[in-house]
Amino acid sequence: MKQYFINTWEGLWTVLVGMKITFKHLFDPAVTIQYPDVKPTMPERARNRLFVNMDDCIGCDQCARACPVNCISIETLKSTPDDTPGETSQGKKKALWVTKFDIDIAKCCFCSLCVYPCPTECIEMTKVYEFSEFERNDLIYKFAVLTPEEITDKTQKYDEFQAAKEAEKLAAAKAKAEKAKQDAAKKADDNPDKKAE
Amino acid sequence: MYNFLIDIFGSPVIAFFVAAALPLFLFILPYALIAVLAERKVSAHMQDRLGPMRTGYHGIFQTVADILKLIQKEDITANSIDRTLFNFAPYLVFIGSFAAFAVLPFSSFFVGSSIDIGLFYFLAISSLVVAGILMGGWSSNNKYSLLGAMRSVSQIISYEIPTAIVVLTMVMLTSTLNLDTITNQQTAYFWNWNILGGAATGIAKFLLIPLMFAAFIIIFISTLAEVNRTPFDIPEAESELVSGFFTEYTGMKFAMFFLAEYANMLAVSFLITVLFFGGYHSPFGYLGNSLGIEWLVPIEQGVWFATKGLTFVLVQMWLRWTLPRLRVDQLMTVCWKYLIPYSVAILLLVGFITLI
Fold it and tell me: Can you tell me the distance from the alpha carbon of B133 to that of B150, in angstroms, rounded to the nearest whole number?
């Protein structure tokens, strides 16, 4: 019988306790962030969309090799001495034209492993997280700044340079061979007596 | 009110229909619009959320948008249902909850129907909801609907008993079944309200106060159970039974069930207001009387009645977002082992007090 009244009292009392808690929460500020209107602040080291600063990229291919899912593909072209890509912001000389720098962000797993090996710190994780697309192909980001014409131009230049170099080399080799021949002839000319003897 | 309408329209028939439709358009539909939104906002803020925010300022047009959506929805009826009963059930439920408003005195000018068996009629007609729920659940030919309907019926029938006993207590105290008379017995100031002993004088009043508080708590719990609200929402029990007896309903029929639920909440809140909190009477006297503007008094009374009723509706919402759902056995325990013995004890004690 005593238990009965205790139960009654506890039933009513605990309901009131619960009501007090919910009443307090009624006046607490809501924790909701009105998402499309108000964006949540991302943490300091948030890993989201990749960005490549092509001014600094030297085309070393280290990020592509570090990528565990092979979402970065890079193609490069050697530059000619009279037409170099210039320097990075840290004053490092660039030796390669980057003709293709594609990141398939659909494949990207946001591991940030490509960021660490970069010698010029040109590839980085940004805080942009809204980049959904309707077409899967739109998710392949092309960072290379060269136009196709420029690429063919550079290829041609490089080929010409290479050909010139080759020719030079050939000429040098020829000259060397000639010289050697001449030297040998000279030697022979210098000591004709010896030979006669 | 009725005579006034006859004067306006010149025909008793038109006046009859207008008087019948007035509570629907004046009270229930605007109330349902506001209450559904209030429920969502209250629940959201109790959980530190914001609730609907995008339709209008802080989402005030959300319910209107929802209704427009529900009107556009296809009315799906499955093949294996009992079509007649299935189609009739939502209307029966709504009729049950709406007809209860007929006897409520909204203000001294607008007393729906001042019949001498008002309380009895109220309890009887609001039990019609049970039939509608069972019809809807059974004819859906769906195990969840049937389970929900069965639970609902067992629950409502169980909880009718403490409600009826408390109402009987109040009848003994006021010695009338007419809701208008009960209201007028609690006139003047708030210490004449039944929860504070009513118009009784002397020692009887002080003896009655704790009993009336207990009776109020009992009738509040049992009517809460009758309208199938959390913590007594096992007939709906979203997590167990999809949505209980109206699982198969779509579009406007679903909206009818929804409207009936909210109308029911308001009806029982008004009943509690009439029985314990002085009906439409102001607790502090009227502005209209002190200023000498007579037509202001009935309007004030209507406002007081609506305020009191909506307060209880808000408490019902508050409870819904505070308490978890009861198990079936706990539900029956609360009713049969706690509410009924207490209400019988109160009945006997109040009877004894009114005797001496």
Answer: 9
